[in-house]
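Ops channel
N.P.: pipeline sanity check, posting one input/output pair.
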């Protein structure tokens, strides 16, 4: 297959598997999404979805969040990991949203990335899922699959995002990045991977990846 044919195959296969696409992190508005995405750094979405109801019961908006201390926030979000940094970020960005944006989450990449503890990936998720702006946030699943599918060189997430935006039409970015995440979890995980279940990698995957898989799993040959 040519690269263009591989791209088309990915889009069609994922659209068939995921005609409707749930957003992995539970939220009710841009602010709660922003906090949930921030918490998801080096933490599973399942764990975040267990913790955010506890946090949001006390503060689901920046005005209530700043009434809590950093220490109180840290105690609640501790199970998500990196709680000292994340609690300071949540408290700090909530102050900025009140002081600079009347308590609203700004709708620009630049403004979001200026907030404490908010990087490019977090900003991209919020812009995409909260506001509908075309974005292609790259997490570990997307980074892994883009490499397995021979659509990027796998050097870093910055290069993977650049390649994804170059290869896939902009109108599918917001759906596609979520579809790839769900596919990675269900069919092409980092651990416990069964290539026979992974139709996309089996069809278009990088030969090196497939050969390495069969070396480790000779019973499947």
């Amino acid at each position: 297959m040519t690269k263009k044919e591989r791209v088309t195959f990915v889009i069609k296969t994922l659209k068939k598997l995921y005609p409707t696409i749930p957003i992995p992190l539970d939220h009710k508005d841009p602010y709660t999404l922003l906090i949930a995405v921030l918490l998801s750094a080096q933490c599973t979405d399942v764990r975040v979805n267990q913790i955010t109801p506890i946090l949001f019961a006390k503060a689901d908006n920046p005005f209530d969040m700043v009434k809590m201390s950093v220490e109180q926030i840290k105690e609640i979000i501790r199970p998500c990991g990196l709680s000292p940094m994340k609690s300071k970020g949540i408290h700090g960005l909530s102050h900025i949203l009140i002081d600079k944006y009347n308590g609203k989450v700004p709708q620009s990449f630049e403004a979001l990335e200026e907030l404490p503890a908010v990087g490019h990936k977090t900003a991209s998720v919020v812009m995409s899922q909260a506001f509908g702006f075309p974005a292609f946030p790259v997490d570990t699943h997307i980074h892994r699959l883009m490499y397995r599918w021979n659509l990027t060189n796998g050097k870093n997430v910055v290069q993977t995002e650049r390649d994804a935006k170059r290869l896939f039409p902009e109108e599918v970015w917001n759906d596609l990045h979520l579809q790839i995440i769900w596919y990675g979890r269900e069919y092409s995980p980092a651990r416990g991977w069964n290539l026979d279940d992974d139709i996309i990698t089996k069809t278009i995957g990088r030969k090196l990846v497939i050969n390495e898989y069969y070396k480790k799993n000779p019973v499947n040959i």
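N.P.: looks fine end to end. The two ends are 22 Å apart (CA to CA).
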